[in-house]
Design brief:
By secondary structure, the chain is an alpha/beta fold. Helix content is 36%, strand content 19%. The chain is globular and about 65 Å long. It starts with a strand and ends with a helix. Bound molecules: adenosine-5'-diphosphate and alpha-D-glucopyranose.
């Protein structure tokens, strides 16, 4: 079978630039695909952080006068893991201090339509006969709304290859005023219910879902949920029409980056059969975060964006009740100001028992996964989620809401599942503070029974979360779209 050539377009990639799980996926999936003999190259914007970390590189294309867009160029480089990168360097759009989507105060960049319009435009160009590169993909694989216009541009390009889009989060849609259609040099006729229009706006994600040959999302359960009214975010109608073309593929994790035996961020290392390193991590974390150093008290932890999606308001609300159990709690996160504030207030009210760190800290996130006993993830919805994988791998059973990828990746601990060796955490249904509280109580009760707790921990640590099987599922999708036989 000939090798498949894939252009993987994304707006973030670990370790170069990361705001959430999309970066983790973009950092690991292409490498896993390459080991299946798929020639993947990653296209991403040249933000300052990306430009500053590039290894040896060369300019491979210039786009001085693409209608509607400032001058840009493509820089070829290779990531440390061997994945080739095509960095879209456009100083007018990407060379600025702040995040990929918003400025330092959290306000979205006002020219985001243009910034990600260009990313989509170039992805499409590289997938058409107008490409200046000798390497031509067989298909373009985009991710989330930031690449959503790729299919719209491909639909009017000469010699266009097919495209696939992966939904990592349907709640972020990239909806803009209709005037942007002209600004982005999209065909005026595309501003239509059969095209890029969504409730009177022009929508990057709607366009992505409409024009893609195939749609994937990051867990089988979420693939079903987004076709329903509750989690369809206004796109369920279109998704239901396209039901046959949607595949849910569970995310994997980078098992080198997240390996408790070698993790460079940890003060102690451990494996399913040698767990003393975990106790060292717990002690160091309690020390670092100003918690009472006590090996026996169950330590709960959170690493998350602090947003409505993640449901952490429930945890903050019951924190005073939790303090009676007793447990300790450590929170690392950033996001909505009220949630940040209430996490900080709790840490002041319960010194030594609750610690909160507001910000984004990769090293600390690893130390928390390793040093805590239970990870709390009560997301209202969760397309996949990655921390429940990381925590299981680090011997930290997660406590999760029964939704999205959480339901697909955590098996509730009951006497039966524990005996069968499948239990891997605690799952609650019904988004209420009471349900979360009793589930944490249930976890704490099992923790007191160290024999069973150790069994649960071992189950977690021996599960396979690598990308191996999911990468094969992506290959199946590619082959189907291309109409190639295996
Ligand atoms: P989402 O992409 O919706 O935020 P995921 O669970 O898929 O959720 O991925 C989140 C990723 O971002 C994980 O790798 C997590 O460890 C990381 N992360 C989230 N918040 C922080 C933070 N404050 N500091 C460090 N890492 C964080
Ligand atoms: C999104 C989702 C998250 C998922 C991640 C990577 O940010 O919110 O659930 O794990 O993308 O696919």
């Amino acid at each position: 079978m000939p090798e498949i050539k894939v252009l993987f377009a994304t707006s973030e990639i670990a370790p170069l630039i990361k705001t959430g799980g999309l970066a983790d996926v973009s950092g690991a999936l292409p490498a896993a695909l390459r080991s299946l003999n798929i020639d993947v190259r990653v296209l991403l914007p040249g933000y300052p952080k990306v430009m500053a970390q590039l290894g040896p590189n060369e300019v491979v294309a210039n786009f001085p006068d693409l209608p509607g867009f400032p001058p840009s160029r493509l820089i070829f480089s290779i990531m440390a893991n061997g994945v080739p990168l095509l960095v879209l360097d456009c100083p007018d759009l990407y060379q600025r201090e702040g995040g990929p989507y918003a400025d330092a105060n959290g306000h979205d960049w006002v020219d985001n339509a243009l910034r990600f319009g260009l990313l989509s435009r170039i992805a499409a160009l590289l997938g058409s006969s107008a490409s200046p590169l000798s390497w031509r993909p067989d298909l373009v694989h985009g991710n989330d709304w930031q690449t959503g216009l790729t299919g719209a541009y491909l639909s009017v390009a000469e010699g266009a290859v097919p495209n696939v889009i992966t939904i990592h989060n349907l709640a972020f849609q990239g909806n803009f005023r209709p005037a942007k259609v002209e600004l982005l040099h999209l065909p005026p006729a595309s501003f239509n219910v059969n095209g890029i229009e969504l409730y009177g706006k022009m929508s990057f994600l709607k366009a992505g879902l409409y024009y893609a040959y195939h749609i994937t999302t990051v867990s089988p359960n979420y693939a079903r949920e987004i076709q329903g009214d509750e989690l369809g975010f206004g796109l369920q109608g279109l998704l239901r029409v396209r039901s046959e073309d949607i595949t849910g593929i569970l995310n994997g994790i980078d098992t080198d980056e997240w390996n408790p035996e070698t993790d460079k961020h940890l003060p102690g290392h451990f494996s399913p059969t040698r767990m003393t390193g975990k106790a060292i991590c717990k002690q160091a974390l309690q020390n670092r975060m100003g918690l009472e150093v006590n090996p026996d008290v169950p330590l709960l932890g959170v690493v998350s964006r602090l947003t409505h999606q993640k449901g952490l308001d429930l945890l903050l609300e019951i924190a005073p009740r939790l303090m009676e159990l007793p447990v300790q709690l450590v929170i690392l996160g950033s996001g909505e100001p009220e949630m940040q504030q209430s996490a900080l207030e709790l840490s002041q009210r319960y010194p030594g028992k609750i610690a909160a760190m507001i910000g984004f800290d990769e090293g600390l996130s690893h130390q928390i996964e390793a040093g805590i006993d239970m990870f709390v993830m009560p997301s209202r919805f969760e397309p996949c989620g990655l921390n429940q994988f990381y925590s299981q791998r680090y011997g930290t059973p997660p406590i999760v809401h029964n939704t999205g990828g959480l339901a697909d990746s955590v098996v509730d601990c009951t006497p039966e599942t524990l005996k069968a060796g499948t239990a891997s955490g605690f799952v609650f249904s019904g988004m209420t503070t009471e349900n979360l509280f009793v589930t944490i109580q249930r976890a704490v009760a099992l923790y007191r029974d160290q024999r069973n707790w150790k069994m649960l921990r071992k189950n977690c640590m021996t599960k396979d979360f690598s990308w191996k099987s999911s990468a094969k599922s992506y290959r199946e999708v590619y082959l189907k779209v291309l109409g190639w036989t295996k």
